[in-house]
Amino acid sequence: MKIFIGLGNPGKQYEKTRHNIGFEVIDALSEKWGIPLDQAKHKGIYGIGHVKGEKVLLLKPLTYMNLSGESIGAVLEYYKEEVDNLVVLYDDLDLPVGKIRLRQKGSAGGHNGIKSTIAHLRTQNFNRIRIGIGRPTVPMAITNYVLGRFSEEEWAEMKKVMEKCTEACEDWIDTPFLQVMNKHNAN
């Protein structure tokens, strides 16, 4: 089974914020693949279906960003899945809006959701898709920036980015992650 996890915060007030772009991609995958997120367990909402003959699970942890690892760890434990069978999608301040970067390992880079994931998985070696949200162009607290919404221009760009992410996720279903990473990082 392939597990796709988008990081974000639950609640209407966080919808379409920079920090919730991982949730947005999971919603896009849910729609594209016809897998409703209609189950609540493991401190998250999720759906299970089949894509290209492969069983897939889509997950949005509902623990709030800083505790995302609790939900991720619970899902892996319940389904007895290896870390190699998951990919985590999340926002990244260090990438400009419109860019994605796929990685197989790495530090949290200051991202609290990834810190929690690393702590609960007890490894930094897991597949991830970093989604660029850029840094603020005016002085402001990082918390206010990541919890802020995209401008109309940025949102138009993010829709294209979400399409790139869904393509990468779909490629990973039947292609080794390293090959998917090489293909999508070349753009």
Characteristics of this structure?
single chain; about 190 residues; alpha/beta; Rossmann fold; globular
Task: Characterise the protein shown here.
This protein has helices at residues 21-33, 68-79, 112-121, 142-146, 152-174, 177-185; strands at residues 2-6, 39-41, 44-51, 54-61, 86-92, 100-103, 127-132. The chain is globular. The chain has six helices and seven strands; from the N terminus they run βαβββαββαβααα. The longest helix has 23 residues, at 152-174. The mean pLDDT is 95. The protein has a single domain (2-182), classed as 3-Layer(aba) Sandwich (Rossmann fold). The chain has a seven-stranded mixed beta sheet, with helices on both faces. Helix 1 (21-33) crosses helix 5 (152-174), helix 2 (68-79) packs parallel to helix 3 and helix 5 (152-174) runs antiparallel to helix 6 (177-185). Helix content is 39%, strand content 22%. A hairpin with a 2-residue loop joins strand 2 and strand 3 (44-51). The protein is an alpha/beta fold and 187 residues long.
